[in-house]
Hints:
Blueprint: H1 4-35, H2 40-80, H3 86-113, H4 121-144, H5 147-190
Helix pairs in contact: 1-2, 1-3, 1-4, 2-3, 3-4, 4-5
Amino acid sequence: MDAYPYIKALHLVAVVSWFAGLLYIVRLFIYHVEAAERPEAERRVLEAQFTIMERRLWFGITWPAFVATAIFGIWLMILIRAYEAPWFHLKLGLLVPLIGYHLYCGKIRKDLAAAKCRLTSKQLRIWNEVATLLLFAIVFTAVLKSPLAAGKAMGGVLLVAGIGVGTMIVMRKRKRSGESARRASDDGRRA
């Protein structure tokens, strides 16, 4: 029996679980930070609940999935001698900031639990996109097995993402200017 497909499947399940944890925990951080704007009684309840949810997600899914990803990834690396391939060096280079991202999320979780987090919900929304970009880069590198092809694919992804973000910004500005015009018109009618 060839163990490779089973180890690869377990590695992929672990990676999916790890990213689910990373992406969801930052969403919880955003809601946690935004809870500070609520009335005192509501804020206390929400912050306590988010602290519990963040701790459970972190230690129940995110950390175990990270460890499983590492174990099965190292096993695969040795099994297929991936360390000899240039694409794998790029993948390892992308894993370094991803592990840093993971560890920094742990710091944010601790800071929020201690009411010491100074990040805004907007900063956390941007932070949440970092994991997505790393996910794209790592998957393209591992699937295409070519640093050049992965770079081209990521360039395309960034171009499409840039166009999408630009379109959303324009639409949001138009919506806000339309709302401002309606408010001004309503204020003019009342006067």
